[in-house]
Write a structure and sequence with these properties.
about 50% helix; disordered C terminus; transcription; mainly alpha; Transcription factor MYB114-like; repeat; Arc Repressor Mutant, subunit A; nucleus; Homeodomain-like_sf; single chain
Length: about 180
């Protein structure tokens, strides 16, 4: 069967009917109940069957980042903070790869934690990636100046445990 180009495909849901923005507790309940009963099978079809006016992508992201029982909640532990800092030094902003080292933490959660708690502490001023003739496997690299800045800051900070400097973020985790 020939494939139909995306611009010619008929949309099953009218764009005006789709809800955007914050999820309501009722929507969360519907999505959670549907997945618990039927499992995950087709994100693009699921909203229709679950009675939600959301896109499949929106449902998938809501489940993966917030509703899944596998998602770990609460403050980052000292060990997790240490892993995030060390992995950022090695990998830059490859949040999925970093999150894979932290069971129960999503890439989005790790990224948000870094930007709200660690970025200022580490003195990272600009984390934009630039295209360059010398690239890594993905075709991107961090500017040399930024790498040096991060490395020198981390070297100073790693002489004492990172979490020592970050106790003010999560004092309960220090107990």
């Amino acid at each position: 069967m020939p494939r139909v180009p995306p611009q010619q495909q008929q949309k099953s849901t009218n764009m005006e009917e789709l809800k955007k923005g914050a999820w309501s507790p009722e929507e969360d309940k519907k999505l959670r109940a549907y997945i618990m009963k039927y499992g995950i099978w087709n994100w693009s079809q699921m909203p229709k069957f679950a009675g939600l006016s959301r896109t499949g992508k929106s449902c998938r992201l809501r489940w993966v980042n917030y509703l899944s029982p596998d998602v770990k909640r609460g403050p980052f532990s000292m060990e997790e903070v240490d892993i995030v800092v060390k992995m950022y030094q090695e990998l830059g902003n490859r949040w999925s790869t970093i999150a894979a080292r932290l069971p129960g933490r999503t890439d989005n959660e790790v990224k948000n934690f870094f930007h709200t708690h660690l970025k200022k502490h580490l003195g990272v001023k600009n984390n934009a990636l630039v295209k360059s003739p010398r690239q890594d496997a993905k075709g991107w690299r961090k500017p040399k100046k930024m790498k040096r800045q991060i490395r020198s800051k981390l070297t100073k900070d790693l002489s004492t445990p990172v979490y020592y400097h970050l106790m003010f973020l999560h004092p309960a985790a220090a107990l």
